Hints:
With 255 residues, the protein is α+β, with helices and mostly antiparallel strands. The chain has 6 helices and 10 strands. Strand 5 and strand 6 form a beta hairpin.
Amino acid sequence: MSTPFYVSPQQAMADRAEYARKGIARGRSxxxxxxxxxxxFVGENPSRALHKFSEIxxxxxxxxxxxxxxxxxxxxxxxxxxxxxxYTYDRQDVTARGLAxxxxxxxxxxxxxxxxxxxxxxxxxxxxxxxxEGDQIYRLPHDGSIVDEHGSVAVGxxxxxxxxxxxxxxxxxxxxxxxxxxxxQALSRESNGSQRxxxxxxxxxxxxxxxxxxxxxxxRITGGQLSRLLAEGASAGxxxxxxxxxxxxxxxxxx
Length: 255
């Protein structure tokens, strides 16, 4: 009988983490941004039926990158948890923090189990507050850790490159059109520094809009509304660039 090879626990965990990261990186990136009236989710997704973004409860949204069947199971579990908790206690007791803790326990248990492979998913759970200060965004990597994010977050694919781009350009109080334009610019960036064009029909966009009178704040943005917002963001960028150019010309003339 041959003696099995010994693998240290540290090496086993490192191998599982590398396996999960490679699986997540094969998926398309998505970004979640705060804007003046809520939180916007933007991702490249050619499918009209298999969504990356979903509503979990009244003020809570879900975003995921990686293997669809795995994060869809997590999404369904989150909806069931939220419905049961809201029905048993009170709707106000369903929070993004509580949901993130549930997901963290599930992902952590699967990641630590030697009997099954780790999930190749990275999640974002977001909750819109009454004010921008009350917004909550949590990122959950494959190992079940929880990262409290502010302003913007990117997961999947070129997440590191996109996050750096967003950190440099995102600001508080952006309009929805400005936030959408920034998100598309970030997603369009390639690792070699070039930029490609993502047509509107390949974008999946949703918002948690605090100004909606309904209890349910989640809304998908598609079709003509999405095209108008993209055009509005592009025209705002053109006006900003032209004003900066005229200001610099005036400064040069004064010198």
